[in-house]
Amino acid sequence: MNGDFIIQNAPALLLAVPMLAAFATPLIGRLGSLARNIWVIAAMTLTSAIGLLLAYDVFTAGTVLYTFGALDPASALPLDSGGIPVRIIFTVDAMSAFMVIIAAISGFAVMLYMMASEAKGSGKDGFYALFLLLIVGILGMVCTGDIFNFFVFLEINSLAGAALVAYRVDKGVAVEAGLKYAVISTIGGLFVLFAIALLYGQYGALNMAVIASSMQYTGLDKIALVLFLSALAMKSGAVPMHFWTPDAYSMAPGSITALLVVASQASLYGVFRVVFTLYNVALDYAAVGWIIIILGVLSMFVGVTMALVQKDVKRLMAYHAVSQTGYMLLGVGVGLAVLGQQTAFDTFGFVAMEGGIFHILNHAMYKGLLFLTAGAIFYRTGTRSLNKLGGLGHSMKWTMIFFIIGALAIAGIPPFNGFASKLLIYESVFLFNPVLSIIAMVVSILTLASFVKVFHAIFMGPKQPQYSDVQEAPLPMLVGMAILAVITIAFGIAPGLVVDSIVAPAATALADQGGYIASVLGGL
Amino acid sequence: MSMSKIVRAAADIIFVFILTFGFYIVAHGHLTPGGGFQGGAVIATGFVLLIAAYGSRALLDRFGKEWFRSSEALGLLVFIGTAFVALFLGATFFANWLANGGLIFGEAVAFGPNPGDLNTGGVIPIMNIAVGIEVLGALSLIVLYMLSGTEEGA
Q1: How far apart are CA A504 and CA A291, in angstroms?
Q2: What ipTM is given for this predicted complex?
Q3: A318 lies in which domain range?
Q4: Which parts of chain A have pLDDT scores under 50?
Q5: Is A420 part of any domain?
Q6: Which parts of chain B sit beneath pLDDT 70?
Q7: Is residue A414 one of the residues assigned to a domain?
Q8: Yes or no, beta carbons of A69 and B76 under 8 Å apart
């Protein structure tokens, strides 16, 4: 197998490798747990490598098309089709590649962590198979250029996620959380399916570029937009549809929660993709932009105020995840609100979008890190209650250091990556509307306060007798956390490099609907 | 726990027809309504009938959950394996590398109204069969797991 083969088929291999690995995991598992672990490690490593390779290809050579079932991946339009792409096409532009990078890094770190954290659990064949399928769902959602295909991967994402949430039964509590997640996701999935049907009925096409190029913004299109936005905002955990996140995030195993954050962000990507690529020029920018901004501000504020009163460390972090999603919605929403006004977009709208998009990446890293530390604490102590924990700083030093890094990053303290993206958002949103920017800063301060409390409750104080035999987390878990911690710091030290090389192209690709359409349909 | 002899004898006979009908729906998936999922579900109802007539214990003695689990994994692997072969033949993932090739399922479809030739469709019938194998295993497993929550299955 040579390099050209992999590069040419990277979008397909990106899904095919984890899918094949997931399907074969139950069979490999019969050879013994060592063979299965090696199999899963190899599959995930290969998937991450292909993902990064694909992203590199996209950032250097432009949008990559992959037409499934054709003789040549680039032949989006068959000669005898009359200019309509009839096949399922993956359209990996800079925004998709950006999300692929997030999934590749998080997936790899979580996989390493999982090897140790799940070592004692039973039923690991199914667990690892579902983990790989969750990766497939996330990668498929962010890569596909076909709206029905998007729905299929959304369902894979939801079902694998729900099964993983319920995997450690925990006297039925986890099953309840998993069932809640499954029901909510299914309702959201039906909304999306209905919206797709409305678009398909009008335009007779499922390819996003074709729908975008013929979008009329009729009454039905508006209904479809509402269905898309409400369902995908629910899946990404935005207030007032956030109620499933605390349950699902807190009851899932720590490793899975870190990946659920990425799964939610794939839905957030869906929100942005629908608004910017499917509708864009047809929209009333200010109205839809403000709806997203209000969703964002509500998420930020409600999320952090609910987090302040939590006693369960993972529930608390889950509410913070809701709150941080608000920043992304705020940043990108401001960008959308001024998309039609060229001067305003150039002065601050684009920077706001950069901030929102950069925050997706940063959030996946530091929030993943925080959930992994919480998982490590639960792994060693068996409790998530802040009232029972204490004095762990004596025995779990590395976990404590990783927690500090994550907590400072989420609170937006320099030199961590959370500061870099939040600063972009503060500055640009201030030019748009100072009140929004002030709310964002207040939320950050509350976040810091909340994490100071958590840090004190878990790590500070004298060594407690019931935790006297608690040891540091196993090495693979520490390595998984270390990967995310190093990225958290590196992106905080050199944010300019990251913004210029991957965030700005992603924001440009998202705002440029014409470019997306042209990449599939050719210059029309 | 098994049911009366009349029920068991009837189940024995009907089971054959259910299997035949199920495999017919799977094999004709590319010609008529139906396909892998629907046919696999029909086949699984045959196993459900056996469970109802003889009890799940008798079925598990004969097949066991591992048998159904293997069938599930085998179906999935055949499905994705067929898609992979296209990659190594130089086409894209999921390309129909058997269509019109003259080999198995490789006849070209006659133009215009025709009675339907089973030997067409390329990889599509193979994918249907793979899905059929997967679904018959998975649905039977679901029924068995649901039964394990009851007194009889426990």
Answers
A1: 24
A2: 0.88
A3: 284-493
A4: 524
A5: yes
A6: 1, 151-154
A7: yes
A8: no
